[in-house]
Automatic annotation (TrEMBL):
Keywords: DNA-binding, DNA-directed RNA polymerase, Nucleotidyltransferase, Sigma factor, Transcription, Transcription regulation, Transferase
Superkingdom of origin: Bacteria
Organism of origin: Rubricoccus marinus
Biased amino acid composition, Acidic residues: 48-57, 64-82
NCBIfam families xref list: rpoN_sigma (TIGR02395)
InterPro entries (UniProt xref): RNA_pol_sigma_54 (IPR000394), RNA_pol_sigma_54_core-bd (IPR007046), RNA_pol_sigma_54_DNA-bd (IPR007634), RpoN_core-bd_sf (IPR038709)
GO cellular component, one term: DNA-directed RNA polymerase complex
Ranges of residues in domain RNA polymerase sigma factor 54 DNA-binding: 323-481
Keyword Transcription attached: yes
Protein name: RNA polymerase sigma-54 factor
GO molecular function: DNA binding; DNA-binding transcription activator activity; nucleotidyltransferase activity; sigma factor activity
Gene3D superfamilies cross-referenced by the UniProt entry: Homeodomain-like, RNA polymerase sigma-54 factor, core-binding domain
Region called Disordered, residue ranges: 43-109
Start and end residues of each RNA polymerase sigma factor 54 core-binding domain: 112-300
């Protein structure tokens, strides 16, 4: 049996302009620059620059203009005075100073990637044509951290399929071994053990501890990672002095050769804000370098006015063109308003952060206050999700360096004196305690909790474990080191 039911419900739907604003809000400065460029390319009515008064024809009364709308045409016309003549500070933002224009045009440095460097080195080897094909395939398969995680079988199949060359896995292994010994030594290793062995193999024979270090990694790798020093000494037949010498040599090696240099692009942090302290307090500014002033192209505005006159005379083509311009005009207006609203919201969030974290901006590290997203949302009277979008991926330039906005958010912990401090302060205290511990007898998490309590931070052992893991600090057994008397 088919039953019909009627249900009434309330749903909140976002307008296209609201959706556009939300998307723009979460973009960092460089991504916003690309978004603005894309909009300028797709909408011919948009262009960079400030509106000029003579473009607006403000001195001519509307009744005397040829394009003045009558009452029946009000729906087709834009309120240009409201849209184009809005004051600069309507949304709490002013354009960046002109001297930033030079920075915007500054060229980026020309940096060669690690892949290009490896290919240049390969060109100096005595490889034949087939070996060069294999080398190129290997280099193209290296991850950004410098490791080769692609199976040799896959590289073999690609070369055979793409170039019709018959190969064996031994051919690929032979070329791979040569590449691993280029600069940086250990590049294209398949795991950490292989990376360390290659670096030790390429060391001069007279390096102190080299032979024991090689045996340590080759024959006792698992015991080495677990720091079972007694087991290593028995297996290699060496004393504590030789073990420490070999151990220290292995620790001096590069675990990720090529990391940070392998990608062709360089990643720079571009601060979205700048906070400067002066005699009147803290001055907050947005990075305007990548957010130019936008306006509607004067040529299209004049065209709009001309079409209005033609439309009155019943010109069908003019009507169709004007409808097209109206769509583009609305899109331009929405985009400009969304950019302005984004700037306003971002400034409000940063002002609230500085208000709460004034001790940090005044004195630097060690003076962070507990702060969560809800605290900011309550100050600026906006939703927590809005604050989250502003904070995510944004950076601020301060007197003490560049910080991600997330750095200023942390839960609070009450000290034994009743004072509430940021958990980041507790984490810093924990790291200091661990750095000062006896490396031959590292402290357990329970002992660390007891020491923190003595310093006025009464937290549970499981909380210490959580903070230690967040800081990528290993357990006590793995922090143990060999210290000779």
């Amino acid at each position: 049996m088919l039953n019909l039911h009627q249900k009434q419900s309330l749903q909140q739907k976002l307008s296209p302009q609201q959706i556009q604003y939300i998307k723009l809000l979460q973009l960092p400065t460089l991504a916003l620059e690309q978004r603005i460029k894309a909009e300028l390319e797709s909408n011919p009515l948009l262009e960079e620059g400030m509106e000029e008064e003579d473009d607006l024809n403000l001195d001519t009364p509307e009744a005397e203009r040829d394009d003045a709308p009558d009452e029946k045409q009000q729906d087709d016309e834009f309120d240009w005075d409201e849209f184009l003549n809005a004051p600069d500070d309507l949304y709490g933002y002013k354009a960046a100073p002109d001297n930033e224009e030079d920075d915007r045009e500054a060229p980026m440095p020309d940096l060669s990637s690690m892949a290009e460097s490896l290919r240049e080195q390969v060109g100096l080897l005595d490889f034949d044509e087939t070996e060069e094909l294999i080398a190129d395939q290997i280099i193209g398969s290296i991850d950004e951290d410098g490791y080769l995680r692609r199976p040799v079988e896959s590289i073999l199949d690609d070369v055979m399929f793409n170039f019709g060359v018959m190969l064996t896995e031994a051919d690929v292994e032979r070329v791979l071994s040569r590449i691993q010994r280029l600069e940086p030594v250990g590049i294209a290793a398949r795991d950490l053990r292989e990376c360390l062995l290659v670096q030790l193999d390429m060391m001069p024979n007279d390096v102190d501890g080299r032979e024991n270090a090689y045996d340590l990694v080759h024959d006792c790798y698992k015991a080495f990672t677990m720091k079972h020093f007694d087991q290593i000494q028995r297996k290699l037949g060496i004393d504590e002095y030789d073990l420490k010498e070999a151990y220290d040599l292995v620790r001096s090696l590069d675990p990720k050769p090529g990391e940070g240099d392998f990608a062709a692009q360089t990643n720079y942090i571009t601060p979205d804000y700048t906070v400067v302290r002066d005699d009147e307090g803290f001055r907050i500014s947005l990075n305007g370098r990548n957010a130019p002033e936008l306006r509607v192209n004067a040529h299209y505005r004049n065209m709009w006015n001309d079409l209005s006159a033609k439309k009155k005379r019943g010109d069908k083509a003019a009507t169709e063109t004007k409808n097209f311009l109206k769509t583009r005009m609305e899109s331009a207006r929405w985009f400009i308003n969304s950019i302005q609203q984004r700037r306003n919201t971002m400034l409000k969030v940063m002002e609230a952060i500085v208000q709460i974290q004034e001790p940090f901006f005044e004195h630097g590290a060690g003076h962070l206050r507990p702060m969560i997203l809800k605290d900011i949302a309550e100050i600026i009277h906006m939703d927590i999700s809005t604050v989250s979008r502003v904070v995510n991926g944004k950076y601020v330039q301060t007197e003490w360096g560049v910080f991600e906005l997330k750095h200023f958010f942390s839960e609070g912990i009450e000290t034994d004196t009743g004072e509430e401090v940021s958990n980041k302060e507790v984490k810093a205290a924990l790291e200091r305690i661990i750095s000062d511990e006896d490396k031959t007898k590292p402290w357990s998490d329970q002992k660390l909790a007891d020491l923190l309590a003595e310093k006025g931070y009464p937290i549970a052992r499981r909380t210490v474990t959580k903070y230690r893991e967040q800081a990528n600090i290993p357990v006590a057994r793995l922090r143990r080191q060999i210290v000779l008397a």
